[in-house]
Amino acid sequence: MTTTVGQYLSARLGQIGLKHHFAVAGDFNLILLDELLAEGSTRQIYSCNELNCGYSAEGYGRANGAAAMVVTFSVGALSAMNAIGSAYAENVPVILISGAPNTNDHGSGHLLHHTLGNTNYGYQAEMMRHITCAAEVIFSAENAPHQIDNAIRTALRERKPAYIEIPCNLANAACPAPGPVSSLLSEPAADQASLDAALEETGRFLYARDKVVLLVGSRMRASGIIDLLPALADRMGCAVTVMAAAKGFFPEDHPAYRGVYWGEVSSPGAQDLVEGADGILCLGPIFNDYATVGWRATLRPEDTLLADLHGITVNGRVFEGFSIRQYVEALTARAPRRAGSAETPRQPQPTIPTAARDARLSNDEMARQINALVDSNTTLTAETGDSWFNAVRMTLPGGAKVESEMQWGSIGWSVPAALGGALAAPDRRHVLMVGDGSFQLTAQEVAQMVRYELPIIIFLVNNHGYVIEIKIHDGPYNYIKNWDYAGLIAAFNAQDGHGLGLRATTAGELAGAIEQAKANTNGPTLIECDLDRTDCTETLVKWGTKVAAANGRPPKVN
Ligand code: TPP
């Protein structure tokens, strides 16, 4: 039985659970796109450019566990690199597939368009090796199935992006057909000796401590076991906090939940709880400068158990050879009860008073109304900027999800990422909060939301500049050209779109706009929220000052 290289790839993408792939066409990938269409396991979704294509795939992969995108050589693939960097940093298995020069042109001395202008066409794969966990350059149809499988399998296991390069004359070349998908999906068995030793050491760590707190970090998204965490908390009886980048990873209506731990900008009570604990069980944390508020919120290593995707560190020893799923499942069956920390009750999040309908729209009132819109079926995507701080202070019903990108932190990510998320989870309500500065990077992707009739509700926070940057380090570079953001939707709709562009300058206008947005089910609704430039979340200012201080440390003199 034979198929073609492109159809083999297409079948594999369908087998691993993808229903869509993202693409921008170019002459090096046209035959591949035809093959993907002909095999038809996944629907082809078009993006305005390759950066957006990558972020859409990243957003899709967050909701669906994996994603795929197809670009053309160099002019496409190099644009996609920023988004693949994001997928690497954020642990999302995005399969980046690039068309490439005809095999006859490699090593021939022929000079090709879309290249750097020299005749060595290996540079793209070389670059990709740094930002993917596997990079396969296909040069023969016979070997293509093995290489495609290796890239996909490695991406799924490592929870990182992978790269596959397919020359334009091989996409429709005959190759063997795929076998069972279990070879890509099966998890390696745990090293039982290492897992047993890890559990024993965990027991020693926990028995020696009374006030144990669970701290959930953003790598848990990639673990696929967020749903198992309440059972672990129930077993241990201890308090649970989440890191800012993991907002929503533990149900906030669970009795053990004690808020977001983020150093000095934690939810009320969470800093004292975590920093006063004698044992902190950290699940999938990322302790970067942002998470530690400029290296101020660093935990004592001797009181910390670090569980990462492929092993744990505890009591000064490292244990590897098992997945975090295998570890958490085993721990949930045998962890000792450690309920000391749960005796401290949860302190309520300060409530935001409701503004009068004719009051000038404020950041607080906007956050209050967005929070009221978030139900247990909502995915809230929060862009880099003050939107992070607004998302973090919200009170979420169980089931609500938050997506943010605090490790990579690229502005512009959220618009295409929300599109990807909406395609992957069409039964959820998708709400996006994005600042005016960030929006200007990837705004045109709203046109694809119109095209694919995705009812995403976009809160465009027009605070007239890069306010987060203004709070960290001000200068003329933080002030941007204002746009008629609501007016853009008419341009994106053209003759046949169902997008809605609205503007709110008062509390009442925002409430009315949200009602219109809920009723608009055939396309996105962009609500431009007009705010004063000085109006932002208190925690942003506090956090920004500390991060700026860390950035401003003078070089060490030896
Ligand atoms: N370029 C990229 C691609 N990513 C970045 N993070 C930055 C530059 C630096 N940066 C971080 S936040 C920010 C900039 C320029 C401004 C965000 O402004 P806006 O979206 O308006 O959000 P606000 O803080 O006003 O809520």
UniProtKB/TrEMBL annotation:
GO terms for biological process: aromatic amino acid family catabolic process to alcohol via Ehrlich pathway. GO terms for cellular component: cytosol. Residues 4-113 form the Thiamine pyrophosphate enzyme N-terminal TPP-binding domain. CDD domains: TPP_PDC_IPDC (cd02005), TPP_PYR_PDC_IPDC_like (cd07038). One of its GO terms (molecular function) is magnesium ion binding. Binds 1 Mg(2+) per subunit. Mg(2+) binds at D436, N463, G465. Its cofactor is thiamine diphosphate; Mg(2+). Keywords: Decarboxylase, Lyase, Magnesium, Metal-binding, Thiamine pyrophosphate. It comes from the Bacteria. It comes from Gluconacetobacter aggeris. Residues 405-529 form the Thiamine pyrophosphate enzyme TPP-binding domain. It catalyses: a 2-oxocarboxylate + H(+) = an aldehyde + CO2. Belongs to the TPP enzyme family. It is an enzyme of class 4 (lyase). This is pyruvate decarboxylase. Its EC number is 4.1.1.1.
